[in-house]
Write a sequence for this structure.
């Protein structure tokens, strides 16, 4: 009911701070104050009043580590900046504010026959977050990353106001903002391309596999005929992992009725003993058996195909009070032995999880300076945070990845060393000039060892 | 419910209500001060399915501007069926205690101007013997509390006004709904302690839209638990209550 109230302006010191956690609920950093602008016209004043390096835009907080956090400083919570500012029905070009979620876009535009050009494994991310992390999805091999479909953005900058960036005006700033971890400014709005689909259905196929080699064969064979490919992997199986390969295309059928259901919600953090190597092994065996039995083709709704975990709200609480770390790396395909070594290390640690996701990236040029996807195999795994031994395991995985010429995904990271960051993004220094002087993040200070 | 005028269209709860009405294909007139913000929500609501969205820029606290709003609404929607008062202001209680200007402004915005514009639309609906008048007041209006009684008394006054109006319009079949939200996570409450635990505006808006659509209780508490909380709060004897500092 702010409609008539004088807009308050108070120094951040007198306002309540919050403990803000990222999706992994680790690390639990110092409290910070969150600005919550409801209108784009309020953002310039927030930027103007802030101290250098004080701010970071924040969306739905689905980054796993500390890239969406700004310990002891301030965040700009962009979730109220969630309006659709224009849509061209003939071309599918959408203009929206940065805090709108992909779920909201699907709810509005899928009934009209439009789908996201690229979508990550959850729809609960904002457009701003999708750009800032240059997210990828199951169609990376043919569609590239989210940033590849962004035509134009308007960026609030603390020093030069609202800057419009596209391929003609400020292309460098656009290139820096895509994958720029929110450090280049606050995205006021973005124009990006939706794509035509017949309906919400996917022609999906499930193929069990029992070795890395079979996975690669499946992946190569599917890339030309399937828009979406991804695999689930049982990381307890070591060098010759079993898994389930999923591939699919948008179905041509239109007719069937379709309802999205709101799923259950985990009410609180589960006790930590629930997840142990035996329960997870049992889960993985059951999961494999269940999906291997279901092998074959069928038509499925888009929700379970793209967003299997979105149906359980707050599933991150599964990992208990200490939270969890996600490890996502990419390893060049030429270094398959390195990949096998990773799997071996994980299997022997006994700390693996049930969420091993495997995908072969395509060879598209990166859309941003700090874009993560590059040709190779990427794997994402969750590890419950169990203190030093979890961090040690990840450190040893880092060594293998670094040796192989691979990289770690900042959106998932809470602990990589500055050396590992340097190895993953050797040209990160060319990004630095584009950082807005008022912006910083816990992640950035950590990996660049700056204050 | 097809043609609705939203008085205070840029308020946190109104924004959510409007989205849900848009999804139902309603036609809306949005009234608020900022033409630029009105234009932004207009585009958004049309994209989300609203059949027609018209905007009118005015300061609702200023009663002289009410006639213009009313004429616009009648001209555009001769068959207007729902009027929702969604604007309000909540200053720091301490400021109202020390500044007569702040005190009077709060009463002017939350009670005087709201009663005036409701009265204007009431006459029209009464004549046409149809429609629904609704206003967002607050649970704070159910009892005068030390920490928030200026806002509370303005909202409580508005609740009483609506109660009388409901009785007056009952014979003509016009519904009057008093909406009493508990604390909601909106820009108005961001500065309050524990704001992150307040109700989700989307949830509150869902309750309100449901109440507008159906024959519903005359007084809507949202989230529902506030009906019970406020019943309990009202049962506390004054001799005890005056000692409480909340």
């Amino acid at each position: 009911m702010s409609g008539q109230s004088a807009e308050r302006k108070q120094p951040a010191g007198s306002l309540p701070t919050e403990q803000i956690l990222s999706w992994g609920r680790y690390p639990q950093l110092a409290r910070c104050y969150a600005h919550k602008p409801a209108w784009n016209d309020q953002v310039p004043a927030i930027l103007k009043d802030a101290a250098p390096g004080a701010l970071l835009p924040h969306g739905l907080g689905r980054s796993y580590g500390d890239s969406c956090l700004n310990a002891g400083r301030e965040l700009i919570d962009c979730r109220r900046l969630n309006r659709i500012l224009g849509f061209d029905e003939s071309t599918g070009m959408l203009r929206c504010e940065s805090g709108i979620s992909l779920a909201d876009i699907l709810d509005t535009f899928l009934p009209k026959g439009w789908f996201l050009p690229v979508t990550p494994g959850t729809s609960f991310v904002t457009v701003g977050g999708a750009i800032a992390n240059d997210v990828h999805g199951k169609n990376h091999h043919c569609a590239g990353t989210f940033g590849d479909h962004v035509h134009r953005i308007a960026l609030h900058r603390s020093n030069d106001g609202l800057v419009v960036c596209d391929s003609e005006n400020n292309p460098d700033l656009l290139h820096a903002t895509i994958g720029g971890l929110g450090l280049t400014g606050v995205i006021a709005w973005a124009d990006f391309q939706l794509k035509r689909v017949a309906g919400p259905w996917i022609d999906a196929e499930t193929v069990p596999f029992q070795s890395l080699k079979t996975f690669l064969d499946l992946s190569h064979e599917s890339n030309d005929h399937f828009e979406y490919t991804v695999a689930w992997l049982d990381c307890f199986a070591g060098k010759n992992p079993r898994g389930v390969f999923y591939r699919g295309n948008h179905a041509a059928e239109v007719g069937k009725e379709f309802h999205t259901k709101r799923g259950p919600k985990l009410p609180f953090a589960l006790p930590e003993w629930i997840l142990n190597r035996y329960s997870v092994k049992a889960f993985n065996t059951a999961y494999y058996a269940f999906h291997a039995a279901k092998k074959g083709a069928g038509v499925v709704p888009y929700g379970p195909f793209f967003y299997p975990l979105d149906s359980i709200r707050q599933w991150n609480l599964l990992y208990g009070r200490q939270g969890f770390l996600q490890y996502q790396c990419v390893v060049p395909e030429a270094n398959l032995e390195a990949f096998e070594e990773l799997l071996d290390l994980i299997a022997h640690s006994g700390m693996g999880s049930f969420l091993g996701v495997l995908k072969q990236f395509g060879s598209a040029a990166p859309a941003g300076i700090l874009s993560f996807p590059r040709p190779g195999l990427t794997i994402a795994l969750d590890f419950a945070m169990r203190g030093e031994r979890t961090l040690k395991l990840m450190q040893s995985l880092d060594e293998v990845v670094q040796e192989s010429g691979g990289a770690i995904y900042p959106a998932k990271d809470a602990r990589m060393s500055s050396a590992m960051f340097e190895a993953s993004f050797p040209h990160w220094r060319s990004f630095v000039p584009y950082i807005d002087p008022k912006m910083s993040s816990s992640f950035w200070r950590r990996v660049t060892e700056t204050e | 419910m097809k043609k609705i005028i939203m008085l205070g269209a840029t308020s946190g709860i109104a924004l959510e209500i409007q989205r849900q009405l848009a999804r139902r294909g309603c036609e809306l007139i949005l009234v608020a001060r900022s033409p630029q913000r009105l234009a932004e929500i207009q585009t958004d609501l049309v994209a989300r399915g609203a059949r027609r969205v018209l905007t009118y820029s005015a300061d609702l606290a200023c009663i002289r501007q009410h006639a213009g709003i009313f004429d616009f609404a009648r001209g555009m929607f001769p068959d207007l069926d729902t009027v929702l008062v969604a604007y309000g202001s909540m200053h720091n209680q301490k400021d109202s205690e020390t500044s007569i200007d702040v005190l009077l402004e709060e009463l002017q915005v939350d009670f005087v101007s709201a009663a005036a514009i409701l009265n204007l639309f009431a006459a029209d609906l009464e004549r046409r013997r149809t429609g629904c008048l609704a206003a967002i007041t607050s649970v704070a209006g159910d009892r005068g509390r030390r920490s928030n009684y200026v806002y509370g008394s303005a909202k409580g006054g508005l609740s009483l006004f609506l109660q009388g109006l409901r009785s007056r319009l009952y014979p003509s079949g016009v519904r009057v709904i008093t909406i009493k939200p508990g604390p909601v996570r909106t820009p108005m409450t961001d500065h309050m302690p524990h704001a992150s635990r307040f109700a989700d505006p989307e949830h509150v808006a869902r309750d309100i839209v449901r109440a507008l659509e159906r024959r519903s209780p005359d007084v809507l508490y949202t989230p529902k638990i506030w009906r019970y909380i406020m019943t309990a709060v009202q049962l506390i004897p004054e001799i005890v209550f005056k000692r409480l500092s909340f």
